[in-house]
Structure prediction request, 343 residues.
Amino acid sequence: MRSGDPSSGVRRGGREEKTDRSLLLFLCLLYLLVHTASLARGESRARAGSAPPGVLSPRPAEAPYFARAREHLRRGDAKQAVKALEEGLARHPKSVPLHYAAARLLAQERQFGRARAHYRRMAALAPRAVEPHFGLAQVAFVQRDYAASAAALQRVIRLQPDSATAYAKLGAVYDRRFQTQRALDTLWKAIALAPDSEEAHFYLGDLLRRLSRLDEARAHLDRAIALNPGNARSHAALGELWLQRQQDRESLARAESAFTRALQLDPRLASAHYGLGRLYLRQRRWSQAAEALRAALRLDPGLGRAHYALAQAARRLGRPAEAAAHLEAFRRYRAARAGRPTP
Prediction:
């Protein structure tokens, strides 16, 4: 995102979309580079209490498939990268590193069923490894299957009882299941295990914010940002916190600054666009509000609350048909969440 006018963060061009996708593919490429390099160094990629030594290190016979996948990712072709890894698995069906790389890449491509199959096979091949269970938990979380996500994380904790990461993620799952006290207790457990867990401070700060415990929330969100200034979610949550405070000019300015920073770090973060849109509504900046809210819905069509805010912006802009359409979409969203059929 460009500096200057914060509203510029909602403009999405083809080049920006390509850049975002290239960044995601680069992360998978980095994984493949590290694992391929480990062959030459003869290093184990396992962590203490995680997979047994060597389980995540590719064997020399598997190296050509990682190399081919890496070249495909350099060209931005994730489909061919997956194909290269799965060709390797046809020859080496018990390769834990190939299953792991394929699962991560498929999950990034939102092919969740295939990713899940690779994670499950990996778990069967490496029963002591926590990595496949973290992967299964993430896939389930993205698909809003919170019961399955919790089960996978509880499996991690059985394997690795002092995993602060597992407790932090489990706290977030409990939060999504509206088990508030259980979520708080689990997140405090994560911080007790690892006081510098950026993830735990983020989840706890965001939960406390939604409970209107704003001073406590700010302390944890500030700590999360200090630990990892590049986490866009923490900046967006801080923006929401400032938006919840009294609507004085300073609070609104701080909210705008936080949302803008979040979008500089991650232009595809729907929650930051949504927060910025609501901020613009309060400032009567109707066109900018509508643009930000449309961006939020493009990036996350399931963000039903944005329809209500967008209806307000459309009405102020003299677009009654658009306003009515978004109000109807919001009504259906609320009915679906309540489990009621719509007439």
